[in-house]
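Q&A log
Question type: sequence-to-structure
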Amino acid sequence: QVQLVESGGGLVQAGGSLRLSCVGSGSIVRIASMGWYRQSPGNQRELVASITRGGSTNYADSVNGRFTISRDDAKNTVYLQMSSLKPEDTAVYSCYADVVVFLEIGTTTGRYWGQGTQVSVSS
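Response status: OK
Response body:
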């Protein structure tokens, strides 16, 4: 029904920047909240940032001031601009979207996930 495809991960030196993108497609009526989680080996999954349809944002303390989340509803896309990257930011980053989808009998709401993209920061 809905697919989320991420891009923009990679290897960067400490202090560098990366921009992640997550594009939604499928039977989308409307997207409410969107955001990014990350997980590294041995650590719990962490909510990095989220953004509501109205544009309200929330950040983990560990990234506040360094990362910026934004969205383009016309493109069903959420972005994560990451600056001043640190080795501890190394993780698999996964986007999510809370989506109202079309069904034959009406609509329903569900959370959908991207496949994850690796971000590696070298010291």
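Response note: The mean pLDDT is 96.
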